[in-house]
Request: fold
Amino acid sequence: MKLRFSRKQLCIPYAVFLICFVIIPMLIIVYYAFTTPVYDSLGNVTGLHFSFRNFLDLFQKNTDGEYVRLANIGRSILIALATTTVCLLIAYPVAYILAKTGIKKNYILLLLFIMPMWINFVLRINALKELLNLIGILKKNNFWNYFNTVLGMTYDFLPFMIMPIYTTLIKIDNSYLEAARDLGASPQRAFLQVTLPLSYPGIVSGITMVFLPSMTNYVVSTMLTDGKVSIVGSLIEQNFLNGQWNTGSMLALILLIVMFVSTWLTGGFKKDDAAVARGGTL
Amino acid sequence: MANTNDTIIELIDVSRQFDENTIAVDHVNLSVRKGEFVTLLGPSGCGKTTTLRMIAGFDLPTGGKILLNGEDISLLPPNKRPINTVFQRYALFPHLNVYENVAFGLKLKRMPQEGKKPAKLSKAEIDKKVKKALEMVDLEGFEKRSVTTLSGGQQQRIAIARAIVNEPEILLLDEPLGALDLKMRKEMQIELKEMHKKLGITFIYVTHDQEEALTMSDTIVVMSDGVIQQVGTPIEIYNEPKNVFVADFIGESNIYSASMVGKYKVKFCGKEFDCVDDFEQGELVDVVIRPEDIKMVPYGEGQFHGRVTSVVFKGVHYEITIMRKKNEIIIQSTWAPEVGELIGMRVNPDDIHIMKKAILSNKYDGYINKKNNVCFGDGEFECDVTQLYPGSFVDEEGYLITKDGKQIDLTDVEVNVEVGLHDIAMSDDPDEGGAKGHIISIIYKGDHYVYIVRTEENEEDFVFDCEDLWNENDLVSLLIPKDKIKLTLVKTEDEE
Reply:
């Protein structure tokens, strides 16, 4: 007997995968986020009931009268913004030089920028830690703690910013630039009015690839500041370790929404050529 | 010749060399009059696009200079030249809409004002000019459309509008119709010609399509291998081609090897003909006759005759192939004889175009290697080294013994190599012959083809005759019989 598969049948493994590892976990998170446990007299959990308490908990003040959780989310966003900005400022010129110089072996140079990505992440951050210790700015004070967190994340995520920008830049047909020059644009103007707008998809792609992970990657801040700088990722981890699954799930859900909004703001959902050109953002 | 006051752009001895072995444009001299429609015509890689890019300023000449209205602009950046380009693939900015594309140049433009700093154009002025330019290309109302949604023909028109809106002194067009289908192309040819008349500016047009060039141009510049082969009006180029290359490239033609047998007498296809060109008696020449210039007459009444082997209807005319012994003769006529019929033919003396043979033999600089083979033209060939010293022979160890008994080591001795046009053969096994290269040119000469094979490394050319038809761009290796390689010593200081 011949085995025959229709195209639809070939989709089944993927559908099963998506249901098991994406849809069901998502539903579980949502379920936990909007429920609180019911305890019996002995302190054992006997059931869950629907409530908004986890959400309202976010606005809880601690004993010093500070909105700890809200501040944590805000801090995460600020660190992620700072990291993304620094990455962009470093990555664009690098990608531009790599893409535009006539060096024939420029992929070797590109490799040098990309290679750190292949070295174990914990090892890299440890090395950075030792280096910062040597300079004497490790865990020195609050400012240096924040500085080191952004530095560590930039170090970590820079390749993710360089790659998409480089890819869009090398794809820009030189004739666009020539056309701009031909129509009277100086080299600077041609860059601002043609190269920059045409590389926008790469920039957006890079921003998404850096901004989202740097909101949650608590390993960097934990290792470089001993948890002095706490971001939303570490908060979630703590909640789950302490058995507060419901609060942790709510935080995870909030994070999901923040990411969704940021992706939407940068146009990641638009189904235009640009989004296709960068291979989509999601 | 053009009046110097009339000349708008002049190329003086302009060269463009990319690296040691690639010379894209080789000492080109050209002068273009104001308002002229000039076409640079040639096969791909002939240097026409590089020439255009140097006029636009995208490429800088490595030698010579370019004068615009008498001023040297060779090194001026493209944004400082009053010249605009219509690009081959249009190069419309995909992130801008039609209006923004056309207005791109206007927004950058600074108009000189009396006593004041040059000022930007106002929004209203730009609007007006954009509207006018879009009207010119029949695309009014397209302002808000995205350029990526336009068809090829529409993009083409926008590209033209974007260039002419800046009112350049010269408009450069780099194969602008190459991406359009045949019907569209024909329409655009006529429209471009009309636009040229209306605007009154100079057009410099690049194409490899000879028909396009003949249709549109005031002047055609035929290029090949970075060199201008001929400059002239379409009629001159068609009727009086300067060499076989131009004749073959422009239109269909019958080309034959011939020899001058007397004053105003030329012999080809085994027959003598009267002609109007004066060449020395006995000189080997090439003869070109256009297919429409040969008249068919009843058998016995013609100057020569042949048998009809094929008749193809081409719409306006028939294309008739006639064999006369080994020679093939192509005729275009509005009536057709029967296939197999014997028919006579007549040619007017002034329709026989005679030109000097460009090349009579292949000449190279070479040297002898350790194996007593000769190296030239990017290859190594077996040869008879004894011809260098009359009466000599080669001993067992490979030394040459002259007739006086002197022993000579020939290794690395430089020689001049000469190979005749009939002495080279091709093989499709790239390693069989001594050198290999690609066929870059095939010209049919009635009973045989003239091939040019160019090696990759140093772009050495081998020119030779062959009766079989191969394909252009085929990779072939070249076989030369040992006794057909003529060697002579290069006189150096060591020689007595």
